Amino acid sequence: MVFLRSEEHLERWLGANGWEAGATVPAPTMNELARAWFWTRLEVGWSPRAVEDAQAILDQVGLTGEFWALR
Amino acid sequence: MRLRELDDLARLELTPEVEEEVRHVGPLVELGLDAGEHAPALPERTRLARTALGVALGDQLERAQGPVLRMLLHASSLAPRPGRAIGDRPDSPAESYGACDHVRVDAFDLDVRRHVYFSVVANGRPPSVTETATAFGREEEEIADAYLRLHDAHALVLFPDTTDVWMANPFCFGPTPHRVSAGGRSWTETCAWDALGIPAALHVGGVVETQCACCGEALELEVVGDELTRGRNFLAHVLVPARSWWDDIGFT
């Protein structure tokens, strides 16, 4: 999961490596995802997150569809 | 003792006397145990100080700094959790999507995992198996087995064929070109998601120094509060579909 400056740089990067595009996420959305996903990571009572809960976080920030299906 | 009571105590001065006392009790407290039960003869104020500092710093006080205390003793960490003690949910699958639905970790593994994460925040690096074994008073083999179970359950990532921690996501301990300044320390991270995950996990703002995957040009992003205030036009790209993220987490 990498950062790129622009769509133009993304296309150039994919082409140079011969990779098919995956999913592009605007940086503000990635920040929103990171806040939701990692917010509890250092809590004293952290315990493993159920797949359904992880999927709900992706859904919550608008990352839906087959690409984002965790199973 | 309820964790909520620790809020004001996080501001206690780290005197040499307090440090010396906490050094003995810290690992117990870090495991969510009541320091009072394990050091019943101590005056009340001493128990409180030990508990407050032990929760945040475990047995690694030498490099302790005020910001570390404040980072860990934030409001949501102090929220009461009635009916469930720390680490008492046995046999939970840890982020088990992908290829490891069968892997389970138990309460002891979660205690070990907690020690790893708290050591990372306190010291900027993960503890070795030897260090964790010392903190828990257990054999190294037991701790190594716990590290391996946590790895298999995707709750930690070990360097290949070792018991050295590579990632305690969002924190990474291998060489990367990415840096995050957050909570008074510089961290490394593996990817775009983790980069923004570090300030999130610490409940602070932060600055991400990374580079464009295409041209290598420096990119800087900044989080203030919950908002991304710099780098908002940049893009993150995810090549690997979600169900395959753990097939090769280093590449993902």
Overall description:
The complex is a heterodimer of chains A (71) and B (252). Chain A has a domain at 25-71. The relative contact order of chain A is 0.13. Helices cover 46% and strands 10% of the residues of chain A. Chain A has 3 helices and 2 strands. Chain B has 3 domains: 3-73, no CATH class; 107-166, Orthogonal Bundle (Arc Repressor Mutant, subunit A); 172-248, Beta-Lactamase (2-Layer Sandwich). Chain B is built from 9 helices and 9 strands. A 5-stranded antiparallel β-sheet of chain B has the order 5-4-6-7-8, covered by helices on one side. A 3-stranded antiparallel β-sheet of chain B has the order 1-2-3. The radius of gyration of chain B is 19 Å and the shape is globular. The termini of chain B are far apart. Residues 1-13, 21-93 and 96-102 of chain B have low confidence and may be disordered. The interface between A and B is large, with 49 and 69 residues. Strand 1 of chain A pairs antiparallel with strand 9 (235-238) of chain B.
